From TrEMBL:
UniProt entry keywords in alphabetical sequence: DNA-binding, Transcription, Transcription regulation
Pfam families for this protein: Penicillinase_R
The organism's place on the tree of life at top rank: Bacteria
GO molecular function, one term: DNA binding
Name of protein: CopY/TcrY family copper transport repressor
Gene3D superfamilies: Winged helix-like DNA-binding domain superfamily/Winged helix DNA-binding domain
Membership in a protein family: Belongs to the BlaI transcriptional regulatory family.
Organism expressing this protein natively: Enterococcus caccae ATCC BAA-1240
């Protein structure tokens, strides 16, 4: 299974565990529980279940150190984020992607560096922009075909 497919099959709870794994690069179930206890009230058994599922899904690898298991990511965070954003954008009419991006930017706290990077990206993207984005929906999924 590709990294993109793996990322799309994980739950929100598993995503939280992966964020810890990406941040630490190597972790134990106790460390994950301790870190996530600031945000959740998950018991160690819940975290162990989530870690086990992520191993089964090929998102995490594991090594045994005595009676402890160490977990490490098998997929890159950046690739997982890219897969997640692509999946989100496939759920809306291609004519509305700009609105989705606008909403994400409007609702996000951004640094000056983030804004500079977005401005550079948009300037580069302008070179390949089209006058109008074609609709990718089938009839009945949007109202683009009604607009003339």
């Amino acid at each position: 299974m590709s990294d993109n497919k793996k990322t799309l099959t994980i739950t929100d709870a598993e995503w939280e565990v992966m964020r810890v794994a990406w941040a630490t690069q190597e972790t134990t179930s106790k460390e994950v529980t301790d870190i996530l206890n600031e945000k959740t009230e998950w018991k160690s058994t819940t975290v162990k279940t989530l870690l086990s599922r992520l191993v089964d899904k090929g998102m995490l690898g594991t090594t045994r150190n005595g009676n402890k298991f160490t977990y490490f990511p098998l997929v890159e965070e950046r690739k997982s984020i890219e897969a997640l954003s692509k999946e989100l954008l496939t759920k809306v009419c291609s004519k509305k992607v700009g609105n989705v991006l606008e909403s994400i930017i409007d609702d996000s706290l951004l640094s000056f560096d983030d804004i500079d990077q977005l401005e550079r990206l948009l300037k580069e993207k302008r070179k390949s922009a089209v006058k109008e984005v074609p609709c990718n929906c089938i009839k009945g999924q949007c109202q683009c075909h009604l607009v003339s």
